[in-house]
Every structure is written in structure tokens, then in C-alpha cells.
Inverse folding.
């Protein structure tokens, strides 16, 4: 059963890191020589990539490294770079994404497929691996590809996504939005079936949809075609289905031979969340908060947006970071809201705590694994001052030091290690004194 959804919904994804968010899905088909063709579809949201402004538009570069191994021996490798050009900056933070396909014909099972995706500008990356298994040469049906829309297309621009004369843009994450996607399209191929005396197939295909171990819908049709190899698309409406995770079974029966084969896959339906997508009443405060998670190039367009555009900007940020599209809640939003509340309770001085240096780090990184609250000696440049050292060591290796410069509770960030978003004072020793024990930062 090809069900790879579990990792998508692990709450640990909320722990923000430099890992690139890439959805990957594989599908296997038999070619005319009954060799297995492996299709790997991958999708990267635009907002995950770092774009630079050039005279040709806003450009991002996504490198893909493909390695194939037999046991531990590398037998094939290929690197290529996708150059993604967008016409305006607003598209770089939109709900759009870059979709591509890699395919290869393989004859042996057990090969290790490794894909590494690298944003060449930001250096964030993601690795995906899969142990390849061929389809049996006698298979009646292939794996399944899922899409929300197909349309006629005879151009060569997206030729690799053609299925027959149709453009079939695959959904690698298998997640469909009920407010947008009214139908689900399933592409599959059939072969190794019998023909009757008139040279026609006699096949019955049936889709069975289950949710929580309960059958909720079935769809069936007959295929009587004068072909020995069939490309078919099964589609059904999803409007009447509830949000959630669904197990789908395609059952194929050759009525001439009695051969039956089934293939399982999954999909998830997501209804647009109805939660409040604003943390603060004022849009400018909301923007200050979301800036903690965005690059300067992503936030540059804010000042040129009208009020409606700013609201859409904020909404796209929260919805785009929802880690579990199976639920109506946005777990990312709820976690950040809890962190904001904690910061306001713990770090406020004459400004709310979420808008402080400690608040910024806490909101981005979460609770530190270790906090040391210390006081400088009397012989330092400014005399006795409180300071804190925060350490993250369980899932990250980060260190921060905050200094209460004016004894007001407004701790300023003086030192940061391994966080490219933060910086350290070049003259830290002037404030900490020559006898400062630097091992405290280790």
C-alpha cells in the first residue's frame, strides 16, 4: 500500500527549521516492453523558495540531485537546476507552487532512489529516498496519479504532464481543498487483459472510497475498447464528502478471464479553516509578527499593498504554513498564538513581550532547552547587569545571549550562534568584561 501521508501530519513539523518543504510522490507504470517506468512528481510552494529581483523578473533556483544506488554502490547520478522566473513579487508569496516530474525506466527491484532538493539562494534543502520495486510484468493495472483538474492541451510547454491529449497536473501531496477542488481525477493504465472475438476488452473498474474504515462511496464503469493498452481517467465529485483522510481502492476485473487486481492509494480533503487568521487587531502588528518567519524579499512588497492586499498577504501566510491540512484548525497558528501569549506574560516591559528580542527568538524557535539567568560583575563597562543565555540542543544547536542594558526588563540580543537571521555585537567583550567565561556559551 503506497500510503506516505503520516509524515505530513507529525506535529513536529511546527518546529521551524531550514528544511525545504517539498511534496514528493511516485507512481509506476509498465511500458510497451513491460519494463517499469518510475514517475516521481515533486512540488515546492513558491513561498518556500528565496527569489531575487533581477531585470528579467523574480528568480529562484532549485537544484535537484538524483542518485541511484544498488546496495551501497552508486550506479547513476544526475544534477539539474530549475530556474523559476515570476513576473512580480507578489507571486513569490502567493499560494502558487513549482511542479516538476522525473521519470526513469528501471528493470530491477531493490535500487535505492535518493533525491536532494536545494534552494541555491537560501541553501535550505530536503532529502527524499525510496527503495524501488518493479511492477510484475503480468500486472493488470498501474499505480495511480491524482489531480484536481485536467484539460485538453497539445502544446509542448508542459509535455511531461500530458496524459494522452490532456494536461494532467499531479497533486504530489494528495490534498484537495473542498472550496476549490470540486472533482478528483485518477489516472491509471491497464494492460495484460484479454480481448474477445471482436477484438474488444471487457473490463470493469470500480473505485471504493473508505473513511474511518467505513465505505462512503463507490463508482464503477465498463471499458469495452479495441486496444491492448489503455490510458484511463476515473473522476468523481467530492463536494458531498466531509473533510478528512480517505482510503481509496481501484478494483479492476477482466470479465473475460476472471482476473482481478486492486490498487490502493489515499487522498485528503481540506475545507478552508474558519479560524481568525489575524493574531492582532492592527495589520501592521500582524506584519511585524509574520516578518519573523519571512525573508526580506518576501516582505518587501508590503508597503505597496492596499488594505485588502495586506489582509490577503497575512491570510496567505497563515494558511500556507498550516502543517496538517486534514484538520480544520491551523496547528501552526495555534502554536504561534500560544507563544505570543507566553511572551506577553513573561517578557513585557513598556512594550508587549512578543515585540521584544526575547519574544522574537521565542516565537521563532519555541521554548529553549536550557536558560541560564546570570549577572555581570561590577567591573564591567556598565556595571552590574542581568543577562540570560538560551540554549537549544535537542533538535537544534543554537545559542543566544540577551542583556538587560538599561535595567528595564528590555533584554537586547547581544550574541547569537548558528542562527543566520540574528547577529552578534562585534564588541561583546566591552559589556561582559575580560574575565567573562565563554564556556557558558558552549
Amino acid at each position: 500500500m503506497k500510503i506516505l501521508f503520516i509524515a505530513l501530519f507529525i506535529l513536529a513539523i511546527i518546529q521551524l527549521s531550514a528544511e525545504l518543504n517539498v511534496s514528493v510522490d511516485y507512481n509506476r507504470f509498465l511500458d510497451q516492453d513491460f519494463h517499469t517506468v518510475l514517475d516521481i512528481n515533486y512540488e515546492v510552494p513558491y513561498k518556500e523558495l528565496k527569489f531575487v529581483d533581477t531585470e528579467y523578473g523574480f528568480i529562484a533556483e532549485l537544484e535537484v540531485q538524483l542518485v541511484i544506488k544498488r546496495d551501497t554502490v552508486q550506479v547513476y547520478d544526475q544534477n539539474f537546476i530549475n530556474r523559476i522566473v515570476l513576473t512580480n513579487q507578489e507571486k513569490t508569496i502567493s499560494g502558487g507552487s513549482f511542479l516538476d516530474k522525473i521519470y526513469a525506466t528501471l528493470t530491477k527491484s531493490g535500487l535505492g532512489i535518493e533525491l536532494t532538493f536545494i534552494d541555491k539562494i537560501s541553501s535550505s534543502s530536503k532529502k527524499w529516498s525510496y527503495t524501488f520495486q518493479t511492477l510484475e510484468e503480468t500486472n493488470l493495472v498501474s499505480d495511480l496519479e491524482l489531480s484536481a483538474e485536467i484539460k485538453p492541451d497539445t502544446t509542448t510547454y508542459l509535455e511531461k504532464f500530458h496524459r494522452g491529449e490532456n494536461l494532467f497536473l499531479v497533486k504530489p501531496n494528495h490534498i484537495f481543498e473542498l472550496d476549490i477542488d470540486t472533482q478528483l481525477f485518477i489516472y491509471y493504465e491497464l494492460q495484460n487483459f484479454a480481448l474477445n472475438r471482436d477484438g474488444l476488452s471487457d473490463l470493469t473498474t470500480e473505485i471504493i472510497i473508505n473513511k474511518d474504515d467505513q465505505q462512503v462511496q463507490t463508482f464503477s464503469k465498463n471499458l469495452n475498447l479495441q486496444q491492448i493498452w489503455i490510458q484511463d481517467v476515473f473522476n468523481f465529485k467530492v463536494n458531498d464528502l466531509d473533510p478528512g483522510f480517505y482510503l481509496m481502492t481501484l478494483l479492476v476485473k477482466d470479465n473475460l478471464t476472471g482476473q482481478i487486481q486492486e490498487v490502493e492509494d489515499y487522498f485528503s480533503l481540506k475545507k478552508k479553516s474558519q479560524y481568525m487568521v489575524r493574531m492582532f487587531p492592527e495589520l501592521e502588528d500582524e506584519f511585524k509578527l509574520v516578518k519573523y518567519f519571512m525573508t526580506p524579499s518576501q516582505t518587501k512588497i508590503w508597503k505597496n499593498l492596499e488594505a485588502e492586499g495586506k489582509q490577503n498577504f497575512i491570510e496567505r501566510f497563515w494558511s500556507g504554513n498550516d502543517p496538517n491540512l486534514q484538520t480544520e484548525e491551523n496547528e501552526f497558528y495555534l502554536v504561534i498564538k500560544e507563544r505570543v501569549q507566553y511572551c506577553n506574560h513573561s517578557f513585557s516591559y513598556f512594550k508587549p513581550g512578543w515585540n521584544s528580542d526575547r519574544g522574537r527568538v521565542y516565537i521563532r524557535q519555541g521554548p529553549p532547552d536550557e536558560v541560564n539567568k546570570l549577572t555581570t560583575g561590577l567591573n564591567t563597562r556598565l556595571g552590574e547587569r542581568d543577562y540570560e543565555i538560551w540554549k537549544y540542543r535537542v533538535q537544534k544547536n543554537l545559542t543566544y545571549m540577551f542583556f538587560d542594558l538599561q535595567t528595564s526588563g528590555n533584554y537586547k540580543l547581544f550574541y547569537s550562534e548558528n542562527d543566520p537571521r540574528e547577529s552578534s555585537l562585534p564588541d561583546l567583550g566591552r559589556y561582559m568584561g575580560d574575565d567573562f567565561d565563554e564556556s557558558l556559551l558552549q
The chain has three domains: 1-136, 138-272, 283-441.
